[in-house]
């Protein structure tokens, strides 16, 4: 793929970042209008952080509603074996990277209206435009933007392979990033997994699946997390389970007396699950598990809850609230990257700029495609911003309330807009598409009745609980 050098390029949209959000918005733009688009990324190919992901990572959501609207990811099939048996397939990192390269080559570039500049840094230049600098040659290209620059890196994830650790370790300590687990050539005396989130869970499951006894795994978990049961995130032929899940959390929210009561109700109806019944989760970051994975993770009983790791010596791990022994044969696995970036919400549509952010909770690709469609089909930024309220990623458990409330309010506005509702229904990134085709299912009818009965009261209740939490 050739790189333009020492010249000026004019385009309608400059998209900075070719990860999931950048690719989804580019796909939506060229589908809905005749715009010319330039995509720039510092990596050599699209896919964003998936290019640096640990080899055994999989999507925590079904592939059926991830990626871009114009191309299916995987085969929309249901797994028959393994911990995900009975649920829709979840792509691996390698599959996702291959997918995005094919989207770029076979759809975006093939349209004749998209140009991609990999291995390039982008920054605002003079009044004439933005400056692209090749990481290979140092040469620059000026991009003049007729409409807007689209920031697809505002919510860029922090991942183990590239983050800066918040703790240090002495040279004799065996400390590796989770990516390097697959490079081990000999066993450790044990494995200490450092981190509370999705990555740490994946590392623990991978070790257990590889035959490591649960008693050989020590899990340093500064905070426990509320988790989502993957059974309630299923699309297509299993979409009744998804709608049932929505109806159950709406019912819980509608009747909750306070935040504590809300989380008790959410756990009772199965919408949130925890690893340890004796520990109240303080974190929520959309991580999902199957019941089989939850059973496996609970086999690990050596859990250290002394805060964050501060320093690892050859014989001691020092944490916020104490220390635990270690030894020279122990493999310490760093899974402490923060993952989702918690940044303040800002208007999505501004003069000359679009900042891609989450709108529907837990669905960044859908949110980006929605933003792209509205940009291509509407002209009033104020109206578009009403349809796209920024919904910052969660961190604390109480953030479930805010994220859900913002998402529900946005959903109500979409339903009141016939054109937008029609686009959402035909979007493959919409997890609930095809709901109408399953109305004969008694489970679906029951869920829909519960959902309509509780929607307005749930939104009111969540807004009240959100105000109390501030």
Write up what this structure looks like.
This protein is of the alpha/beta class and 470 residues long. 32% of the residues lie in helices and 19% in strands. The model has no long low-confidence stretch (mean pLDDT 95). Among the domains are: 203 residues, FAD/NAD(P)-binding domain (3-Layer(bba) Sandwich); 124 residues, FAD/NAD(P)-binding domain (3-Layer(bba) Sandwich), CATH 3.50.50. The chain contains 11 helices and 19 strands. The N and C termini lie far apart (50 Å). The longest helix is centred in the last third of the chain and has 28 residues. Helix 3 links the parallel strand 9 and strand 10. Helix 1 packs parallel to helix 7 and helix 4 packs across helix 11. The strands form 4 sheets. Strands 1, 2, 3, 4, 5, 6, 18 and 19 form an 8-stranded mixed beta sheet that branches. Strands 8-17-9-10-13 form a 5-stranded parallel beta sheet, covered by helices on one side. A 4-stranded mixed beta sheet has the order 7-14-15-16, with no helix packed on it. The radius of gyration is 23 Å and the shape is globular.
